[in-house]
Amino acid sequence: MKRPGSITIDPRFRGPPDSGNGGYVCGVVAAAANEPVAVRLMRPPPLSVALELDESQGGFVLRHGEHTVAVARPDQVDLEVPEPPDHAAAIAASLAYPGFVEHVFPHCFVCGPRRLAGDGLRIFAGPLQDRPMVAAPWVPDGSLADDDGFVLPEFLWAALDCPGFFAIPNAGRTGLLGELAARLERPVRAGEPCVVLGWHRYSEGRKHFVGTAIFGKDGGLAARARATWIELKD
Fold first, then answer.
1. Which of 220, 210, 224 is nearest to 84 (CA)?
2. What pTM did the predictor assign?
């Protein structure tokens, strides 16, 4: 277990212009635990300010002053994962990424089409032709890796974030990540050709429940996640 303490979200890792990408922030909180967790976002995570991460009731809490930003609790993330498409099918799907036409947050660290290669993750999940799911290719940049060349956990969590939104039917509406629970199955190397998959599970009013997964070069499962997205009112 890492020692809790102060963290600061760099503007590079933003989702909306003035707050951190939800998946990345959840991953930063999760990195303090030595087990799979679910992280619930309570408010937009602010950028460039000191946030305090503390242990609390068997989990963790991220605070900005008196305000709770996120809370984490243990969760084994028991989620059945569909078979992945091959890399060519993921590339074909990404060509129809709806964010190329219209994107509410075009500079999002994960899915923003205005982020340059080596800066944003540029995961552009589009619809598969043969299944009601979305997929995208992803080759993690070296800046995301530790000294041994493996992608840091918070960036795997980030990659598991936005594809889930685009798996929601009529995903052109604005939504924000409410909760993300992820389990990392095996390390991913920087430069490894991966496929990211997203699928819609069910919806309850403005709440949408989705699954996402990362598959490595050999097609094996590297990470899985279960997420709740909140559709914003007009």
1. 220
2. 0.96
Same structural domain, 226 and 139: yes
| Same domain as 200, residue 122 | yes
pLDDT, one tens digit per residue, over 139-154 is: 999 999 999 999 999 9
Length of the chain, in residues: 234
**Nearest to residue 156, comparing CAs of 107, 209, 192?**
192
Cβ within 8 Å of residue 22, ≥6 positions away: 15, 41, 45, 161, 176, 177, 180
Total number of domains in the chain: 2
Range of the structural domain that residue 210 is part of: 87-231
- Three-state SS sequence of 76-143: CCCCCCCCCCCHHHHHHHHCCCHHHCCCCCCCCCCCCCCCCECCECCCCCEECCCCCEEEEEECCCHH
- The pLDDT confidence band at residue 156, using thresholds 50, 70 and 90, is very high
Distance CA 199, CA 179 (A): 16
Last residue of a domain, one of 26, 51, 74: 74
Q: Would you say residue 81 lies in a domain?
A: no
Q: Where are the alpha helices (DSSP H) in the chain?
A: 22-30, 87-94, 153-159, 162-166
Q: How far apart are CA 233 and CA 72, in angstroms?
A: 26
34 backbone dihedrals φ, ψ, rounded to 5°: -110, 30
Assigned token pair, 12: 């590079």
pLDDT digits (tens, 9 = 90+) for 28-57: 999 988 789 999 999 999 999 999 999 887
Please, are residues 138 and 159 in contact by the beta-carbon 8 Å criterion? yes
User: 184-214: per-residue pLDDT in tens?
Assistant: 999 999 999 999 999 999 999 999 999 999 9
